[in-house]
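for the recovery benchmark. tokens below, seq after
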């Protein structure tokens, strides 16, 4: 089975490739990555005509047809397609009447939520409806918030939530080692002797370097991020503000960029509220994680930290991994065989 993907997010498709390879090594995913973060995997971006790091933001019918004309003979050889980031790339593949798996990780309507192109949003939503009617669509969200965002616009499209695993990092936290510091990965936190900022690791830090800490602290700017998925799978203790504390931090200007519209259309009006995103944020469902209601509470927690939830976290990771693999096995089994 040969599947094709062109992507702007290096991690989302990397996770799918890793999972599919482990489930069925005969599945071949041809991945054209035009992400600006290929350096993370020590790779360079694929040189692609028509659809580039800048032109995709103007994705319209003319650009879609130009891309198809450029690569038509190649795309016709595929058994199916994967559209990750952005989901709007599904429009590139509908013509070929093959199964399309969509992995929704961040605002399915990019770039149109930025450009306010309601004509193309309507075309994208219609594309999903047509694909579902032909039984060619598998729409998977890796988090509740973006799944609900999609459902507000497409209430009749069937979706499935399957979290990302990101085991491609091979990060594994060693609980038996002695660590002296905690890493602040996202957000601004008052200085403390036990804290190290991510900036101290340099711009091209390795995944392995993240495992040299007693735990990782996030002040999240999104309802879901791939870096958090990566760290969950490593087993390292993760620290997050409580929902109420995070809301207060967002109100004070720390992070929060979920509402890409500014003033969204009526069907997305619910997404203007911080409450919409926080109540669906996946880091509040990570068993074995730690939550703080103030920075003072965090500091006290760190000063006496012994990781009492380690066993709970390991059990959660094991169950989570098994379910993700089982879900994707079912999805792969539904693909037509050659």
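predicted aa per position
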């Amino acid at each position: 089975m040969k599947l094709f993907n062109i992507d702007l997010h290096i991690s989302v498709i990397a996770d799918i490739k890793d999972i599919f390879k482990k489930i069925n090594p005969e599945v071949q995913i041809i991945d054209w990555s035009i992400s600006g973060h290929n350096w993370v995997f020590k790779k360079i971006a694929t040189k692609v005509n028509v659809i580039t790091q800048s032109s995709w933001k103007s994705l319209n019918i003319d650009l879609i047809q130009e891309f198809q004309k450029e690569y038509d003979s190649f795309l016709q050889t595929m058994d199916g397609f994967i559209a990750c980031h952005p989901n709007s790339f599904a429009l590139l593949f509908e013509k070929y009447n093959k199964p399309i798996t969509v992995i929704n990780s961040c605002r399915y309507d990019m770039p149109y939520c930025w450009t306010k192109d309601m004509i193309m949003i309507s075309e994208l939503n219609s594309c999903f409806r047509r694909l579902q009617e032909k039984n060619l669509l598998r729409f998977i969200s890796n988090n509740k918030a973006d799944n609900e965002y999609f459902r507000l616009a497409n209430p009749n499209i069937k979706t499935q939530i399957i979290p990302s695993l990101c085991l491609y990092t091979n990060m594994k936290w060693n609980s038996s080692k002695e660590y002296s510091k905690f890493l602040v990965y996202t957000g601004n936190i008052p200085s403390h002797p036990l804290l190290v900022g991510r900036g101290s690791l340099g711009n091209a830090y390795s995944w392995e370097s993240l495992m040299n800490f007693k735990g990782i602290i996030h002040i999240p700017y999104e309802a879901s991020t791939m870096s958090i998925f990566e760290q969950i799978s490593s087993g390292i203790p993760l620290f997050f503000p409580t929902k109420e504390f995070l809301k207060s931090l967002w109100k004070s200007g720390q992070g929060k960029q979920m509402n890409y519209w500014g003033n969204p259309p009526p069907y997305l009006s619910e997404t203007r509220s911080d409450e919409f995103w926080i109540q669906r944020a996946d880091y509040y469902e990570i068993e074995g994680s730690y939550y703080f209601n103030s920075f003072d509470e965090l500091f006290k927690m760190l000063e006496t930290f012994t990781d009492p939830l380690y066993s709970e976290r390991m059990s959660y990771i094991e169950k989570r991994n098994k379910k993700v693999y089982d879900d994707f096995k079912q999805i792969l089994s539904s693909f037509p065989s050659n």
